[in-house]
Amino acid sequence: MSEASPPPVDGPAADGPLLVADDLIAGYVPGVDILTGCSLTLEHGQLVGIIGPNGAGKSTLIKALFGLVDIRSGEVRLRDEPITDLPAHALVSRGIGYVPQVANVFPSLTVSENLEMGLFLRSKEWAQRFAFVAGLFPLLADRRAQRAGSLSGGERQMVAMGRALMMEPSVLFLDEPSAGLSPANQDEVFDRIREINTEAGISIVMVEQNARRCLEIADRGYVLDQGANAYEGTGHELLEDPKVIELYLGTLARQDG
Ligand SMILES: Nc1ncnc2c1ncn2[C@@H]1O[C@H](COP(=O)(O)OP(=O)(O)OP(=O)(O)O)[C@@H](O)[C@H]1O
Ligand SMILES: [Mg+2]
Q1: Which residues are found with C-beta within 5 Å of the ion, ligand 2?
Q2: Considering Cα of 75, then 161, then 211, then 33, what sign does the dihedral take?
C-alpha cells in the first residue's frame, strides 16, 4: 500500500528487479572488510534510499556497486546479468550513472564543458542530451559558460547530476546529493531527484544523511550499520519503525527543521 506505482520501465527483463546486490563483502585494504554483508534490491522505476551513521559504509556500498571498490564476495546483478566485477566505464555503457559524494564537478571547466565530459562515449548526441538536462535544470543552460568552481553548492550539485544524466542512464547512484546545501537548496534538489525518478523514469539508489527526507521520497529504504543491513522496508515503514526512529532518525531528524 505504501509502494508507489512504478513509472514506465526501461527495457527487457522488466519482470525481475533492475538491480540486485546480494551479500556483498568489500573493502579497500587487504584483510579489512568495510562491507560485511550488504544486500539491496532496486525494482524498475523505483527510488531506493540508503541511510545510516557516518562510517557505516554507505559510500563504500555505492562505490562497490559502481565497480570502484573490490568486491570480495557476493554478487551484483543488473537486469539479471552478473556485473559484479565490471569496471565503472563498462557499467556506464550499461546505463548506470554515478554522482560521487565529493569532488563531483570539474571546477575549472565551465558548466557546458562539465556536461560534455559526461557524454564521453556519445559526443554526437550533445544537443539532444543537453536539451534534456537543461529541461530538468534550466539554470544550467543559463550558466553554461560559467566555471563550475564559481557556482554555489546547490548549483554544483545540479551540474554533477546533469553530467551523470548526459549518458541517458536507466539507473542513477547518488551519494548524499543534499549534503552541505541550505534548506531551500535541499528542497530543490529533492524535488529534482523525485522528478528524475518519476517523470524521466530513471531508477535511483540514493545515499542520504538527511534520513527523514530520504525515506519520505524513497519507495524502499535500507539502514546500513557497520557495513551490513540493519533494517529495510518501504520508506514509510522505516519512518514509522520505533527502533529506526530511536537509533537512526532521532538526531538526524533535527536537521529537517
Ligand atoms: N579509500 C579508502 N581507503 C580505506 N578506507 C576507507 C576508504 N574510504 C572509506 N574508508 C573507510 O570505510 C569505512 C566506511 O566509509 P564510507 O565512506 O563508506 O562511510 P559512509 O557511510 O559513506 O560515511 P559518511 O556518512 O561519513 O559519508 C570508514 O571506516 C572509512 O574510514
Ligand atoms: Mg559517505
Answers
A1: 58-59, 101
A2: positive
Q: Which residues of 143-165 are buried (b: 16+ CB within 10 A; e: fewer)?
A: beeebbeebeebbbbbbbbbbbb
- Which residues have CB under 6 Å of ligand 1? 28-29, 34, 52, 54-60, 101, 209
181 CA distance to ligand 1 middle (Å): 21
- Atom 6 (ligand 1) nearest CA: 28
Nearest residue (by CA) to ligand 1, atom 31, is 55
- Decide: pTM greater than 0.85: yes
- Domains in the chain (CATH in brackets) are 46-70+83-256 (3.40.50.300)
Distance of alpha carbon 77 from alpha carbon 80, whole angstroms: 5
pLDDT (tens digit, 9 = 90+) per residue, 171-208?
999 999 998 888 888 988 999 999 999 999 999 999 99
20 and 34 in contact (C-beta within 8 Å)?
no
In whole angstroms, what separates CA 218 from the centre of its chain?
11
Total residues belonging to the chain: 257
Query: What's the rounded Cα separation, in Å, for the pair 180 and 186?
Result: 9
- Residue pair 104/160 in contact (Cβ under 8 Å)? The answer is yes
